[in-house]
Write a structure and sequence with these properties.
Oligomer: heterodimer
Distance between the termini of chain B: 41 Å
Strand order of the largest sheet of chain A: 1-4-3-2-5-6
Strand content of chain A: 15-25%
CATH class of the domain at 26-63 and 86-177 in chain B: Alpha Beta
Order of helices and strands of chain A: EHEHEHHEHEHHE
CATH topology of the domain at 61-213 in chain A: Rossmann fold
CATH superfamily of the domain at 26-63 and 86-177 in chain B: HUPs
Shape of chain B: globular
CATH architecture of the domain at 26-63 and 86-177 in chain B: 3-Layer(aba) Sandwich
CATH topology of the domain at 26-63 and 86-177 in chain B: Rossmann fold
Protein name (chain A): UspA domain-containing protein
Largest sheet of chain A: 6 strands, mixed
Structural class of chain B: alpha/beta
Domain UspA (chain A): 66-214
Strand order of the largest sheet of chain B: 1-6-3-2-7-8
Organism (chain A): Aegilops tauschii subsp. strangulata
InterPro entries (chain A): Rossmann-like_a/b/a_fold, Universal_stress_UspA, UspA
Number of strands of chain A: 6
Pfam families (chain A): Usp
Amino acid sequence: MMAETKAVAAAVEASPVEVEEGRSKTVAAAVEASPAPVEKGRSKTAAAEVEAGPAEVEEGRSKTVVLVAVDDSDASYRALEWAVRHVAATAGMAGAGAVELVVLHAKPPTSLAVNMGGPGVSGDVVRLVEADLRKKAEGVVDKARRLCVANSVQGVVEVVDGEPRHVLCNAVDKHHADLLVVGSHGYGAIKRALLGSVSDYCAHHAHCSVMIVKQPKSKN
Amino acid sequence: SAEAAAMASGMAPGAGAGGAEGATMKVVAAVDASEESLHALSWALDNVVRPHPGASVVVVHVQHHADHFAYPVAGHGIASGLQYVPPTAVDSVRKTHEENSRRVVSAALDVCRQKQASATAAVVEGDAKEAICRAVEDMHADLLVLGSRGLGMIKRALLGSVSDYLVHHASCPVLIVKPPNKAHHK
């Protein structure tokens, strides 16, 4: 059962973000297993903000694509900070090629969030959760945009529905990313086993190098 | 702490306080004899270290551990026993390992020199993942660079479990570099 999902790309300095509802027809049971890496109609225009060069390689100085995954956690914000600073530093290098930053928020499918609450959930709850997820996504996108602007870094911000691990790995392929930056929650081993670790999955499966940004040791 | 014999065979002008990221970025790169780990080092230097002038690199090699006195021996009719190995044999094995280490380190430092990165080297012994973890802490590294297959020489470890361990236990961000055939590297 295909869930209709939409992803929205927002140019960093441009208009207000609207995070369209993933019209995911998720009934409590079925989690959309195959992540639909959704095309974003507007990303092309948004990409005009970024150095629009061919994705393909030219000898030597070709475009570098850095993809950073964000959610509403502190850990991922730290990853975003690292990525933004890195892109800023790289862009500032003499003789550097173009660097493109793609900020990606994987909005988990509503059903997944709802399922974790337990069986027998009413339609109202689904709607509430859906709205909450949407709101969170908007917050995440907003924060990301502000950070980019503050560092004079241009980037594309996308929201894609689906399970984060797949959304991220697919996005790496789609954008031909050279580097994927993720945060690490610092979960203990047991929590990782139960909840799964997106950063672990990506470290093994993404088709590019992966940068895992940790929390400072003090936290743990 | 760690039995880290620091073989300083490179220049290390800025090898000082590594705390603040913006200031002098301190990079630890774990290397072994594999092409892959040298590629990881090279990629990291090009893509992550280069934008940070004044960054310093320490290549860390975990030396093969020469077992002390006994080697498991196959055959001899009865399925394996432990055979006592005379100290001279242990010595010569150890010397071989040291020779290997020198070669690995030298190759890694060459890569750093080619990329004009200031680098030193450290050879440590012990369990690879723990040794690297300790090195990262002791050196207050800002970044740890690994090839994606972990350290190939650790035959006991499951594929990737060294990198998994380090991703979760290292006290600094970890960069896992994929080999060129897996990545869209340019």
